[in-house]
Amino acid sequence: MLVPIPALNDNYIWLYRRENFPVIVIDIPEITRLIPYLESNKLDVEAVLLTHNHDDHVQGVAAFKQYYPNVPVFGPTECANKGATNIMDSGVINTAHYHIEVLPSGGHTAGHVSYLVDGHLFCGDALFSAGCGRVFTGNFAQMFESMQRFNQLPNETVVCPAHEYTLGNLAFAETVLADKSAVKNQRVLVERYRAEGKPSLPTTIELEKQINPFLQAKNLDEFTQWRLAKDKF
Question: Which residues are annotated as a binding site for Zn(2+)?
Answer without folding.
Answer: 52, 54, 56-57, 108, 125, 163
